[in-house]
Amino acid sequence: MSSRMMRAASALLLALAAGGSGVGGGRGVGGAGGLSAQELPQAQAAAVRKGVQATLDAYREHAAAGRWDELMRLYADDPRFRWVSNGIVEARAVEQIRKYFATLPPSARVETTYQDPEITPLAPGVAMVTTLYQTRLVDPKSGGFSFGGALTMILVERPDGWKILSGHVSAPVRRGS
Length: 177
Known about the structure:
The protein contains four helices and six strands. It has a single domain (3-22, 35-170), classed as Nuclear Transport Factor 2, Chain: A, CATH 3.10.450. It is globular. By secondary structure, it is an alpha+beta fold. 33% of the residues are buried.
C-alpha cells in the first residue's frame, strides 16, 4: 500500500471516533443531578438513543458525500478528546483529525456501515456506542480499500447535538491455536 493510502487509512481510522478519559465535566459520571444510567427514565433513555443514532447517521451521510467540514462538527472540540487505535493514542485533539482528512484525495468518499450498534445511555448527556464496523474508501482516481473491526465511542450532548468525545477502534487479530 502506498504511503498516501496508508495516510488515508489512518485518517479514516482516526475519523471514526476518539478515545479518552473523563466525560463528566467535573460532575462525575452521574452528570447533572447525579442520575445513573439505571435511574434514567425510559423516555429520557430513548431520547438519548435517538440523538446518538442521528449523529451516527449524519456521520455516515457526510463521509459518503465527502462533506468533511460538516463531518468535523460531529466531534467534541474538548481537551479530553482522544482517539485510540489498536492500543495507541493517535490523536489528542480534533484538529489532528481535521489534518488527517486534509490528506484525502479530493475525489475520495468514505462509506461506513455499523453492524447492530448498541447505544447505551450512561448518564444524562453521556452515551456509549459499541459496534462492529466496516469502512470502505472509494476514490475513482486512485483506487480504494476497506478495513473494519470493533468500535466503541463516548458521545456527549451539547447544545447543538450529540458529539463524539472519545473512542477506540481495533482490527481483528487472528490468534494461533
